[in-house]
């Protein structure tokens, strides 16, 4: 697996954790969790907002930012898969009988 794929999966999981915590926990706990996830994802605005705002504003900002993290991770995963599919489909299939004919010619030329 590539590092890009792994980082997108981690970002999606972290965003899902913040989405759930924004609806399940208190705003101060959600704020600190969002702060930690934001620093891990290098999302500066989210880190600042999680420290500056309180109450329901913090809850809804955290929810929106976490949904954005999940969306960004999904877009990254889709881009990764599309790039992988494009590479796989660019290989040329050579029938087995054609390969054997080439090998026989190569062996005759070498002898």
Q: How would you describe this protein?
A:
The protein is built from 5 helices and no strands. The chain is rod-shaped and about 80 Å long. It starts with a helix and ends with a helix. It has one domain. Helix 1 runs antiparallel to helix 2, helix 2 runs antiparallel to helix 3 and helix 3 runs antiparallel to helix 4. It is about 85% helix and about 0% strand. With about 110 residues, it is mainly α.
Question: SSE layout and pairings?
Answer:
Layout: H1 3-24, H2 27-41, H3 44-52, H4 55-90, H5 96-110
Structural key phrases:
rod-shaped, 87% helix, mainly alpha, 111 residues
Roughly what fraction of the amino acids lie in strands?
under 5%
- How many strands in all? 0
What value does the Rg take, in angstroms?
A: 25 Å
Number of helices: 5
Uncertain stretches of 5 or more adjacent residues: none
Shape: rod-shaped
Domain count, please report it: 1
Order of helices and strands: HHHHH
Residue-averaged pLDDT: 79
State the end-to-end CA separation: 44 Å
Largest sheet: none
Which structural class should the secondary elements be placed in?
A: mainly alpha
Helix content: over 70%
